[in-house]
Amino acid sequence: MKKYSKWLMVAVSVIVMAFAYKPIKSAIEGNPVDKRISFVIYKGNNYTSKAYDKTSAQVHINVEKVSHGKCITVWDTTFDAKLLKQYPSIENAFLKEIIVPHVIDKRDRLEISCILTYKSSGGQLQMQYGAVVMDESGKLDIPI
């Protein structure tokens, strides 16, 4: 009889642990959420001088979800080059909003990289910067 009661206790323990695994894992890692990221693109300087008449800027944005040390691109886009004078002021900024589904705050992070490519008189300059989204609604200002 003792032999069966030990096996019964082991079996019950295994069953309880199997059913408790998901809630315990969820409590440790957190529940998945949808993260909203806003990109605000605007003219950061006064480009009225004739020196900027033929200068353009292109914006490339890449969003990666990093989970368990693996990077997965979740959004990648390039906004066509425009003359600097054509970009809106901060009051009329261009807003692009994306939603990244199923992000677990305690495990995943969203990394954003932005490359600004300026072209003028045959020359080219690239500026790169990045950000990490830590809260549910991230906002990234991109002054041109």
Biggest sheet, spatial arrangement of strands: 3-2-5-6
**Terminal-residue CA separation:** 79 Å
Q: Provide the residue-averaged pLDDT.
A: 84
Indicate the low-confidence ranges by residue numbers.
none
Query: How much helix is in the residues?
Result: 10-25%
The structural class is alpha+beta
Q: Give me the number of helical elements.
A: 1
Order of helices and strands: HEEEEEEE
Present the secondary structure layout.
Blueprint: H1 2-29, E1 32-42, E2 56-67, E3 70-83, E4 94-104, E5 108-120, E6 123-133, E7 137-143
Parallel strand pairs: 1-7
Antiparallel strand pairs: 1-4, 2-3, 2-5, 5-6
Give an account of the 3D structure.
12% of the residues are buried. The protein has one helix spanning 2-29, and strands at 32-42, 56-67, 70-83, 94-104, 108-120, 123-133, 137-143. With 144 residues, it is of the alpha+beta class. The radius of gyration is 25 Å and the shape is rod-shaped. The longest helix is centred in the first third of the chain and has 28 residues, at 2-29. The termini are far apart. The strands form 2 sheets. A 4-stranded antiparallel sheet has the order 3-2-5-6, with no helix packed on it. A 3-stranded mixed sheet has the order 4-1-7, with no helix packed on it. It contains 1 helix and 7 strands, in the order H-E-E-E-E-E-E-E.
Q: What distinguishing features does this structure have?
A:
7 strands, 19% helix, 3-stranded mixed beta sheet, 144 residues, 1 helix
